[in-house]
Amino acid sequence: MLQGKTIVLGVSGGIAVYKAVELLRLLTKAGADVHVIMTNNAQEFVTPLTFQTLSGNRVNTELFNLYQEQEIGHISLADRADLFVLAPATANLIGKIAHGLADDLLTTTVMATKAPVLIVPAMNTNMYENPIYQRNEKYLAEHGYHILDPADGALACGWNGKGKLPAPESIFSTVDALLTPKDLYGCRVLVTAGPTREEIDPVRYLSNYSSGKMGFAVAEVAQKRGAEVVLIAGPTSLNVPAGVRFVPVTSAAQMGTAVLEYYADMDVVIKAAAVADYRLTARAEQKLKKTADQMTLELEKNPDILAELGEDKEKQILVGFAAETENLLAHAAAKLRKKNLDLIVANDITHEGGGFDVDTNIVRFLHPDGRVEKLEKMSKHQVAEQLLNRVNDFRNAVKTD
Ligand code: PMT
């Protein structure tokens, strides 16, 4: 994800330094080349050796160290970085940067860089609320520094309030978002996800095994790449990706109404939801009683939302999904044609690691001209990346027509 990116992780002194170790692990795992600079105070909490071992790079600590300077050089680091991350950033570090002070390796390198800088403050609540600190932070934000707000909670100093370093995963997502090119900027994307539920009576329903993971991954990646995203989802237990407009629904009928409400304004629609094809002809008002030995439920067809969108298609790029247990390509190709789609993602759900309620997927992209692209098994986020690359190809092709 961060392959080929050079990140300078600036660590200043505070109890949260141990969380910077976990952040470093996440960054290197994602493929980033991370160079750590520690202040003297940071080294009181965790030794440079820990960061050095995990980053695979020499940890830089001193401004006037001939060996370090010759090996990497603070100006060279400042030039090479794609991003600076200061985590934890103390009130002292932020105050120095805001006032143009460069009296150690970290502040000097930060001042010398033209790369974006993400500041992740961590400090005592009273320090955080101090108007002098707030003024410094505001000043830096006004000058293009990115600030990730501290979290609320119990602080090491015994206070409870704002000032905790956010979870390393949350800092990692911010880093990832900052380093992601915004190639879908200005594009409005509607995504559907999850199952739908068709009520039988007040306590029972018909549904399927969709977890929503595939659709939520598409929504998250599209938002990260700069799109304006509306996510319409049936019942799931997933967290809504930040920055996405979320519309929860339950039944296929509700999903249809919500999709049609947004459709006209959308540039792209990606229907990853597993929509129930049938619903009860009549939902029972009261809980059904166990009387007869056998029971028959009468079902009627739900409207096919995607087929309706295909009929009314104007400028929109329409992408469908198909989860099949047999004749994958034939069934998916038939849906592509019938629903007037620009692409269909065929899921092979007979293989382990593909389809419902897993983090990976095994898919093929079927194009209207008959092309079939077979993708390796990969995470649903990687499938989403690939899918959105194809969407961008369509957008660029339309622009150059
Ligand atoms: O949610 P996960 O656990 O991550 O699982 C992901 C998934 C397997 C559910 C997803 O990747 C997927 O394949 N979704 C489509 C499931 C399917 O087989 O749909 P379908 O063949 O019934 O429908 C084809 C397309 O028409 C789909 O895009 C569907 O959203 C759409 N459709 C279907 C019926 C209907 N009444 N209205 C629709 O819009």
Task: Provide the number of structural domains.
Answer: 2
CATH architecture label name of the largest domain: 3-Layer(aba) Sandwich
Shape verdict: elongated
* N-to-C span: 32 Å
Low-confidence stretches: none
Helix/strand class: alpha/beta
Strand order, main sheet: write it out.
Answer: 12-11-8-13-16-17-19-20
Radius of gyration: 26 Å
In the CATH hierarchy, what is the class of the largest domain? Alpha Beta
Instruction: Say how many strands there are.
Output: 21
Structure explained in plain terms:
By secondary structure, this protein is α/β, with parallel strands linked by helices. It folds into two domains: 6-178, Rossmann fold (3-Layer(aba) Sandwich); 188-279 and 297-400, Rossmann fold (3-Layer(aba) Sandwich), CATH 3.40.50.10300. It is built from 14 helices and 21 strands. It has helices at residues 17-29, 48-55, 66-71, 74-80, 91-98, 105-112, 125-129, 131-142, 168-179, 213-224, 252-263, 305-311, 328-338, 380-400; strands at 6-11, 33-38, 83-89, 117-121, 146-147, 151-154, 160-164, 188-193, 198-201, 204-206, 228-233, 245-248, 268-271, 278-280, 299-301, 317-324, 343-348, 360-361, 363-366, 372-374, 378-379. The radius of gyration is 26 Å and the shape is elongated. The chain starts with 5 loop residues before the first strand and ends with a helix. It binds ligand PMT. Ligand PMT is lined by residues 192, 194, 210-214, 252, 271-275, 277, 302, 304-306, 320-323, 335, 347, 355-357.
